[in-house]
Amino acid sequence: MTQQPFMGRGAIDLSALKRPATPQAPPGGGSPGAAAAAGSSYAVNVDEQNFQTVLQASTTAPVVLVFHSPSQAPESSQMADDVADLVGQYDGRFLAGLVDVDAQPQIGQVIAQASQLQQLPVPLLMVFLDGRPAIQPIPGLVSREELSTLFNQLGQQLTAQGITGRHQPLAAPPGGDEAAEDAGPDPRYAPAQDALAAGDIDTAVAEYQKLVDSNPADAEATAGLAMAKILQRTQGVDLSAARAEAAANPDDVDAQIMVADLDLLGGHVEDSFARLVELVRRTSGKERDRARDHLVSLFAAVGNEDPRVLKGRQALASALF
């Protein structure tokens, strides 16, 4: 499954849907909606009454909508449950909105019309940020492993773009007050994330470097540092010019590295890895070492558990030996 970068699109027209008669306070002081869905503190069953409010919550942090149908595609409801369960692992980075199109056909019609589709495919996954679709809609069944990869990628992009907002839980998580106190952003990363939000990439790099120096095993800090360095290297770079330079000079390590960085930021992770693997295959000596070392740094930015990183490491080993 290819993951797309965040992108601006038009807001969804909700005028055809019912409006709540009175404002509904979010349960537990958390994100708007009805009761928490599927046992998750960060998932809500969406209906016509709360749909607009759920979308408005995307001004705080991304909202993941899953359209499923127990009658048309029973397996799609399992996918919705998987999304609800997985978003709960991100401490408010995402809110899942589950839309049963059998029970809420008008919501499906509104989304289909806004997406210029004759009929809404089921299942369908959409991610909203600031009330607008943030990535290309993903139709069809998505495995739990692929969903986990998608959320990891989105979380990394949020960090890289300085988007640090989090949803509040809809209900107290299991474990009582102690678990509730544990939920929420880790303050260790706040200086780096705040710097990214302010556009101060150099400071973000320095803050992440401090974390890595103090604890080299901190995977989140390592990924944050790698991504911040990519942003630092690509500041002000024109993508078209970079691609033209790389095409004209296929063995220029600097030119190929730049396009690989830009591809990674754009969500084209496999293309980024493949470019550098081929560069390793074609080069030798110090140039080969530079290409290999840079590719390894990109693996860290994506995350060592990502299936594409595992494939990329296999391809790199093949190119080296």
From TrEMBL:
Residues 1-37, 166-190 are annotated as: Disordered. Transmembrane segments: none annotated. InterPro entries: Thioredoxin-like_sf, TPR-like_helical_dom_sf. Gene3D superfamilies: Glutaredoxin, Tetratricopeptide repeat domain. This is Tetratricopeptide repeat protein.
